[in-house]
């Protein structure tokens, strides 16, 4: 597995500039999520990473598709380690970093918090979920109580309802979660959701 590649970057990662780590969904690429950055406060720099696995048709994935909502933990762990390796090599120590992930990228955002909670200030999970089962970093995450925005639609046809329910149950036990369900929203990101996520990120910086 290769290290994720940063192709799209905004800002110079100067000391004091907070960074959004954009993590796309299955079959997408690093040029996808930067479109949402325009809806967020311009104080944030961002780095959009390409997932390391080739998903075909010009797209990439963080882990192979398997049982809906319950992927094999091994490739998830490998991709998580790859992102942390990229972070060590490219992001100035002490930078406020918030992973923002959609779908598979949303699971990756939760994995980053569960693996290295000391590296992050918060997370934004859009139509994502948490990996089933405990992880070694869970106790440290519960102690830090990082803020997490979890947005999801009640008409999501991709993420299984039990995975969403599991995530809504898990997050309050390990984080300070803002959990918002959007009526009629399928597996996508709405303007309302982006506005809520933007307000959440403003609170993270103010906090």
From TrEMBL:
Family: Belongs to the AB hydrolase superfamily. AB hydrolase 2 family.
Cross-referenced InterPro entries: AB_hydrolase_fold, LYPA1-2/EST-like, PLipase/COase/thioEstase
Protein name: Alpha/beta fold hydrolase
Domain of life: Bacteria
GO molecular function annotations of the record: hydrolase activity
Keywords noted in UniProt: Hydrolase
Phospholipase/carboxylesterase/thioesterase domain boundaries: 11-203
Originating organism: Oerskovia douganii
Transferase is among the record's keywords: no
